[in-house]
Design goal:
The protein has 271 residues and is of the alpha/beta class. It has helices at residues 9-15, 19-26, 37-52, 68-71, 73-88, 105-108, 111-128, 140-145, 147-150, 165-173, 191-199, 227-241, 248-262, and strands at residues 2-7, 28-34, 58-62, 94-101, 132-137, 156-158, 178-182, 205-207.
Length: 271
């Protein structure tokens, strides 16, 4: 079994209609992200079907993305209320992706509504005892602003981690049950991601495709099958650095165990 800590199957389905069959054949357990009712209900149907067929589980995640204040502020407010209902009904396994996107001046201009959105959703996660999936594009410093609250959560998954090794270590030292998820960036010469996934403790690593949004070179989109390329690259980087987890088998086994701790053992979703 392999695990994918962050993907968007609803969006992937528009590009690869048979993608769920691919996931089931490959035995990939995944954390599936959604931000509106249509996406969530689509994923919920897939999850039920996978469970009934004995296939690998799909952990349902829901959260108002930090880009919504600039793209669709009305929907952002509605998403928070829908999240509140899903959490109270025990229909989700994690809150996310939520966080901060401060990539450019346009996004930075929405930092105040992003903050309000994040805090409302963090409070829901805390009340429900759910893990969170964090999106922190040029916003790693924000994680430290909320470290005390994050340390009260069962798990915090930093999606597509782009911070430094030292920042990751500092977050762990503050008592946050953090898992650092790496995707195709490690195969695309992103130096900070490559250094962090090579040096951080293996028990805090996850792997992801962010399908369909982080394609490998010469590809139009990422998909489930890319997870093995990510695992192989992380193993090669760790072997070169002399840290534990220098084989693909070690990385896959460890990240599967980490996925279980981060998501499956903390799930409040009814089966």
């Amino acid at each position: 079994m392999a695990s994918d800590a962050h993907a968007h199957p609803y969006d992937l389905a528009a590009l690869e209609p048979d993608n769920e069959a691919v996931r089931l054949r490959a035995g990939i357990v995944c954390a599936a992200s959604s931000w509106n009712e249509a996406e969530f209900l689509f994923l919920e149907r897939l999850s039920v079907s996978a469970r009934e067929s004995g296939g690998p589980p799909m952990v349902l995640c829901f959260g108002a993305h930090p880009q919504l204040p600039i793209s669709d502020p009305v929907s952002a407010r509605g998403a928070v209320e829908y999240l509140r209902a899903l959490a109270s009904e025990g229909r989700i396994g994690a809150v996310g992706e939520i966080g901060f996107d401060l990539y450019d001046e346009a996004f930075k201009a929405t930092e105040t509504p992003q903050t309000e959105l994040f805090e409302a959703q963090l409070e829901i996660a805390l009340h429900a005892g759910l893990p969170v999936v964090l999106h922190l594009r040029r916003g790693m410093h924000k994680a430290f602003s909320y470290a005390r609250q994050l340390a009260r959560l069962p798990a915090v998954v930093l999606h597509s981690y782009s911070g430094t090794t030292r920042e990751a270590e500092d977050l762990l030292n503050r008592g946050v049950a953090a898992y650092f998820s790496f995707g195709t960036a490690v195969a695309l010469n992103h130096k900070r991601a490559m250094d962090a996934c090579a040096r951080l403790p293996l028990e805090h690593l996850l792997v992801e495709t962010d399908a369909p949004y982080q394609p490998l070179r010469a590809r139009k989109n990422s998909s489930w099958t890319d997870i093995q390329a990510v695992i192989g690259m992380i193993a090669a980087l760790r072997a070169a650095s002399g840290t534990s987890g220098g084989s693909a088998e070690e990385v896959e086994n460890a990240t599967d165990a980490n996925f279980s701790r981060a998501f499956l053992k903390n799930r409040s979703v009814r089966s």
